[in-house]
Amino acid sequence: MKLLLQHKIVAGYLLLMAVIGCMVAIVLHERNRVRKIEDESIAIFQTQHHINTAHRYVTTLLTYGESVIVWNKEDSLSYRERRTRTDSLLQILSIRCRDFIHPDQIDSLCALLATKEKHLFQLMEAFQKIGNEPQAKLRAAKLRAMFNNTQDYKSHKPCTCVDLLVEELEHPENLLNGI
After folding, report:
1. What is the distance between the alpha carbons of residues 61 and 39, in angstroms, rounded to a whole number?
2. How far apart are CA 70 and CA 55, in angstroms?
């Protein structure tokens, strides 16, 4: 009986060790699963952050491009820098987000932004070329002479007085002399 009791005790210890071993294996397995979930969560957060940043960059480019009328060379260089930064971020997204964003869509967006940049630069040059103040005054005076100072809005023949308004703003003393 003594031997049987020792066998029972050893079998109980072996069974207890097996249960503890299984518990340790389960804990290690769950830790690995939690680590994988955390890594996936971090990757999703980073992807979401990159997408939000790209959206903000594109929105900034669109709003910045609306002021092309008053751009100078520094503004155009700033726009180019912002566009290349946006382009780089979009290329990173095309690699990281292949599962749910087709790379052709990102390439298409990059191509559209590059084309828009080219058109904005052409607009800037055109505005700088024809948008100077003396030319605007001269054209306004010619337009007013062409319509004989009439303000016939009904017939769509308004008289423009832009050159006179600019002259008054530039030389307010002339207004005071007339009083």
Report:
1. 33
2. 25
